[in-house]
From TrEMBL:
<dbReference type="InterPro" id="IPR011333">
    <property type="entry name" value="SKP1/BTB/POZ_sf"/>
</dbReference>
<feature type="domain" description="BTB">
    <location>
        <begin position="162"/>
        <end position="236"/>
    </location>
</feature>
<dbReference type="InterPro" id="IPR000210">
    <property type="entry name" value="BTB/POZ_dom"/>
</dbReference>
<protein>
    <submittedName>
        <fullName>275_t:CDS:1</fullName>
    </submittedName>
</protein>
<dbReference type="Pfam" id="PF00651">
    <property type="entry name" value="BTB"/>
</dbReference>
Length: 332
């Protein structure tokens, strides 16, 4: 079972930085004893409400001498966000990236729909191995662990408290339309305009039945837990690909990116070729991530039996030739 630490750093920008659209660097902070970071805010002009937030990885002593990927910075999933009040995130960007001396900055572009007098920027680390330690008392740190809310979880089995029914391949799961639509544009459009999954709506439009026979209750519950609590809990790592598929099906981008990060984190030189051709090839996004992993580790991958027998894997594969061409072009 995966139940990782989630830690957040927030910084309230000084008024003069917002007013004059100045560049602002936060104080350093750490996601582990060897991974240090900094946020950089950059406005784009007084007449524009667009701005960027850079997540900067700060090299430790070992990183300064290495040309390889900084493993301490690349082993966690990050979410950069902005707020105009303490209680609600206005916009967010998820990052699944590797950092090195050649690429130690990840930039996220934001645009606020209205002028703002107060702005809070922050980053959440998901999967950090140690509790975060702040270098400045004014930083707001929030550490949440095991955050599945029992009251909401109980609703998945309570017909009376819910207005959406999911028919899965091994049972029935219930949920609330208000939560689904607030977390997913796909569900917003589905309940408004209809879709292939929506098989029944009562006359008052207050109860919906969705048919999703391709997924089990376990997979759907994992997805709903994420929508309800913003946390991913993997009870069985064998289900991770099914979770990616359901996140992609319902256009839950945050969940998809988080699961993709977990998939790539579990790849090995031995497993990567088989995973590419038997699983990842159907998703352009995931396929590119796996190919990138193979290219980064090609010196080891090419010595595996799986790579040496790649001809038998691609033979008869519906996209074998095309994928092999893409792989060779990236390697060369």
């Amino acid at each position: 079972m995966t139940n990782e630490v989630t830690s957040t750093f927030e910084f309230t920008l000084p008024e003069h930085v917002i007013k004059d659209c100045k560049t602002y660097y936060t104080s350093p902070f750490s996601s582990s004893s060897n991974a240090f970071w900094q946020l950089k805010f950059s406005g784009s002009g007084k007449s524009s409400r667009a701005f960027t937030i850079d997540l900067i990885a700060i090299a430790n002593r070992e990183d300064q001498l290495s040309d390889n990927i900084w493993k301490d910075h690349s082993s966690v999933f990050q979410k950069i966000y902005c707020k105009v009040s303490e209680n609600k995130i206005l916009d967010e960007r998820y990052i699944c990236a590797n950092f090195s001396r050649y690429h130690n900055i990840h930039r996220a572009l934001f645009f606020l729909p209205c002028p703002y007098k107060k702005l809070i920027i922050g980053v959440t680390f998901i999967g950090s191995s140690l509790e975060l330690n702040s270098f400045e008392d004014s930083n707001k740190r929030v550490t949440n662990q095991n955050k599945i809310i029992s009251m909401w979880s109980d609703e998945f089995y309570d017909r009376e408290a819910s207005d959406v029914q999911f028919n899965v391949n091994n049972g029935v799961i219930f949920a609330r339309k208000s939560i689904l639509t607030s977390r997913s544009k796909y569900f917003q459009n589905l309940f408004k305009e209809g879709g292939p999954e929506l098989i029944k709506v009562n006359k008052k439009g207050s109860h919906y039945i969705l048919d999703v026979p391709d997924f089990s209750s376990k997979i759907l519950l994992t997805m709903l837990n994420f929508l309800y609590t913003d946390e991913l809990i993997l009870h069985d790592e064998r289900d991770i690909m099914k979770l990616f598929i359901i996140a992609e099906k319902f256009f839950i981008t945050n969940l998809k990116e988080l699961v993709k990060f977990e998939i790539v984190k579990r790849l090995t030189p031995k497993s990567s070729i088989g995973f590419l051709f038997f699983n990842a090839w159907k998703s352009e996004d995931l396929k590119n991530e796996v190919i990138e992993y193979i290219c980064r580790n090609f010196d080891v991958v090419r010595e595996t039996e799986e790579f040496k027998n790649i001809g038998s894997i691609t033979s008869g594969h519906p996209a074998g030739v095309r994928i092999m061409q893409e792989l060779l072009l990236r390697i060369i």
